[in-house]
Write a structure and sequence with these properties.
This protein has 201 residues and is an alpha/beta fold. The protein is built from six helices and 13 strands. The protein has a single domain, classed as 3-Layer(aba) Sandwich (Rossmann fold), CATH 3.40.50.880. The chain has an eight-stranded mixed β-sheet, sandwiched between helices. It is globular.
Length: 201
């Protein structure tokens, strides 16, 4: 069973549908026992960093997420879910993230000809042999919607990068923790393969 964490963020239903398409049993939940029983856990999300951290704390999910990670259960953060796993964000100064991974979330710099938020398809450059990207061709295209981007403290956990006004750490893996800034559930066949790779861990 796959648990999708419910903290009132957007985009939860499209992740649920993608997982059901892959034949997975899915529950959208914020119940500790259900989350800890799950074979895999997903933290999706679209929204603001500070609001999301407030909800995560309000619903008692902060400690549960750390428990899931410590237990070695495969854990996937998507979009805002990736950002929340890190220490801080320019979007919400003074608000601490989950701190599961080291790094910070920065605003995409203003660049002539590039719109913010970044909405659309970008190609990925793979590195560090990411398990999510097995069986995918080089420079696969995925779908992004974001105004802030990850700068991981440790480049060795970064498994995919892209360029949009700056170098963006688009995906990371560390132990049982995986995260994507882009939306695999909206990234056509490439995204389905990424989710399939996560399911098969």
């Amino acid at each position: 069973m796959i648990a999708i964490l419910d903290y009132d963020a957007g985009n939860i239903k499209s992740v649920e549908k993608a997982m059901q398409l892959l034949g997975q049993e899915v529950t959208i939940t914020r119940k500790r026992d259900e989350i800890l029983r799950a074979d895999k856990v997903i933290l999706p999300g679209v929204g603001a960093f500070g609001d999301a951290m407030g909800k995560i704390c309000q619903y008692g999910l902060f400690d549960v997420i750390h428990e899931v990670v410590d237990n070695g259960t495969p854990f996937l953060g998507i979009c805002l879910g990736l950002q929340l796993l890190f220490e801080r964000s320019d979007e919400s100064p003074g608000v601490e993230g989950l701190g599961v991974l080291k790094g910070e979330i920065l605003r995409i710099p203003e660049t002539p000809g590039l719109k913010i938020p970044h909405m659309g398809w970008n190609s990925l450059e793979f590195q560090n042999d990411g398990r999510l990207f097995r069986k995918l061709p080089k420079e696969s295209y995925v779908y992004f919607v974001h105004s802030y981007y990850l700068k991981a403290a440790d480049e060795s956990i970064v498994t995919a990068v892209t360029e949009y006004g700056t170098k963006i750490h688009a995906s990371v893996e560390q132990g049982n923790v995986f995260a994507c800034q882009f939306h695999p559930e909206k990234s056509s066949d490439v995204g389905i393969q990424i989710l399939k790779n996560f399911v098969s861990l």
